[in-house]
Every structure is written in structure tokens, then in C-alpha cells.
Design brief:
Layout (H helix, E strand, L loop, with lengths): L5 H12 L5 H13 L1 H19 L7 H14 L1
Protein name: Putative zinc-finger domain-containing protein
Organism: Rhodococcus wratislaviensis NBRC 100605
Pfam families: zf-HC2 (PF13490)
Length: 77
């Protein structure tokens, strides 16, 4: 099984959070998280961002900011 690097993890974080990852990739992803404090912190930050933004009523998020955030998340994927 090939190790996952930080760039691979960043590209797969959305699939991980949406539980849309094959079992082998999930094992590699979680193994990397256990060995890389930076990526573990990154995942925590993304989870917190998703949680925080999900708690906002849609009309409270400026449409321009919403579009910029969505574009940024798409680039990470």
C-alpha cells in the first residue's frame, strides 16, 4: 500500500468528510493523519469551518463571500 502525502490528503479531504472514499484510501488517509500533526490540524480547521458555515442561515452569508468560499473549496478538491 502506497503512503499518502500531504498534497494527496488535501485533495481528498472533501471526499473524506462526505464519506465518499474507498476503504483503502480511507486507511491511507487516516494513517497519514496519525503521523502528520499539520494535516490533522488542517482537517480540524476544515471541519470547524464546515460546521460554522453550516450553522449560518443562508441570508446571513454575503453572496460574494459565499461564492469565494465555494470556489476556494473547489480548488482544494
Amino acid at each position: 500500500m502506497e503512503d499518502m502525502d500531504c498534497q494527496d490528503l488535501v485533495e481528498l479531504v472533501t471526499a473524506y468528510l462526505e464519506d465518499d472514499m474507498d476503504p483503502d484510501a480511507r486507511v491511507r488517509f487516516e494513517s497519514h493523519l496519525g503521523e502528520c500533526p499539520g494535516c490533522a490540524t488542517y482537517l480540524e480547521q476544515i471541519e470547524q469551518t464546515v460546521h460554522t458555515l453550516g450553522a449560518l442561515p443562508p441570508d446571513e452569508l454575503d453572496p460574494t463571500l459565499r461564492d469565494r468560499l465555494l470556489a476556494a473549496f473547489r480548488e482544494w478538491r
